[in-house]
Fold:
Amino acid sequence: MSCLLSCLGSGNAAQSQTLASLKGTVWDFHEAFKDPGDWSAKGYSKTADWKSGAAPLGFSNSWPGGGTALTKGSALVYFFRLEFAAPSAPQCWRNLTLSLVRDDGAVVYLNGKEIARSNMPAVRHALL
Structure:
């Protein structure tokens, strides 16, 4: 079974924080001043302005074992996507644990459905 984990994060580029992890996985990310559309849905076709990088991702380039540094000040909002294979047996999905390290705030989606919100308003994001 293929699953999509997507995160929307807002952050202060002056802080050194990890925004997306699962060490060693390769995430797609978008440093945005504009809304990339229905980016959290499965089947979304990313555009050329999406980049890829190994986790952890954030505003530091000094993680032990590597990682991807985001461009400081390049965006108000950062979008992250990771497609992964999950067991198809229903008993494997009784418990999922999400650990989130974020700067100012984050919203997490699984297969296009919001599953977590931390320090973000209770409305869908809108970029000007």
In short: Residues 12-21 have pLDDT under 50 and may be disordered. The chain has one domain: 2-95+106-113. Residues 2-95+106-113 form one domain. The two ends are 36 Å apart (CA to CA).
